[in-house]
Amino acid sequence: MDSKSLKNLTDDEKKSFLNIFEKKIFKQNDIIKKENKNTKEAFFLKSGEVIVKKSTTEGEDEVATLKPDDGIFFSISCMIDGKNSLTTVVAKNDGEILSVSKDSFFDFCKNNPSTGVKILKNVTEMLVGFLRKSDESINNMYKTLEEVL
Predict the structure, then answer these.
(1) At 74, is the secondary structure helix, strand, or coil?
(2) Residue 75 — left, alpha, or beta (φ > 0 → left; ψ -120 to 50 → alpha)?
(3) How far apart are the first and last CA of the chain?
(4) What pLDDT shows up at residue 149?
(5) Which helix (H) or strand (E) covers residue 60, if one does?
(6) Quick check: helix, strand or coil at residue 4?
(7) Left if phi > 0, otherwise alpha if psi is -120 to 50, otherwise beta: which for 82?
(8) SS3 48
(9) Average per-residue pLDDT in the chain?
(10) Count of H helices and E strands in the chain?
């Protein structure tokens, strides 16, 4: 599995970390996580595809389609803070995910501090990347609004 959250880990570290994950099978249209519902897990997509949706004033918009090759460790913010999901994730087709709970994740990091620090650094870099991308989108929206007004 190739993911930004696993970069700079040795093969043994990756194997040890992935060993704490639980395999879950999903069917087309299954809801993996629901917006505004408490979620204390993060996921790797092993097979199949999932659609990420976000509620808007006009209903639900598709934000992204994730594939295994994307290597995205998703729902990290929910796992870390244990708060409600910001999006809904629905199975586009049959597949499999690897799931890790907040407790398992942090227990692993405590019990494997060297590997845990690497993973937490990678996860932080991923979250900062999402934050920067969101900030850029907000800035572009303001610029467009200024041009219109």
Answers:
(1) strand
(2) left
(3) 48
(4) 75
(5) strand 59-66
(6) helix
(7) left
(8) coil
(9) 91
(10) 4, 8
What residues pair up with 60 in beta bridges, in sequence order? 55
Closest CA to 66 of 128, 19, 121, 3: 3
- Token code pair at residue 99: 């799931």
Say if residues 101 and 79 touch (Cβ distance below 8 Å). Answer: yes
pTM of the predicted protein model = 0.81
Question: C-alpha dihedral over 14, 2, 72, 28, to 10 degrees?
Answer: -100
**45: number of Cβ within 10 Å:** 26
**What is the mean pLDDT of the segment spanning 103-113?**
96
Residue 1 scores a pLDDT above 70: no
Q: Please tell me the distance from the alpha carbon of residue 125 to that of residue 51, in angstroms, as a whole number.
A: 23
Contact 13, 62 (CB under 8 A): no
At 63, list the tokens. 């934000």
Estimate the share of the chain in helix, then strand, then coil, as percent rounded to the nearest 5: 45, 30, 25
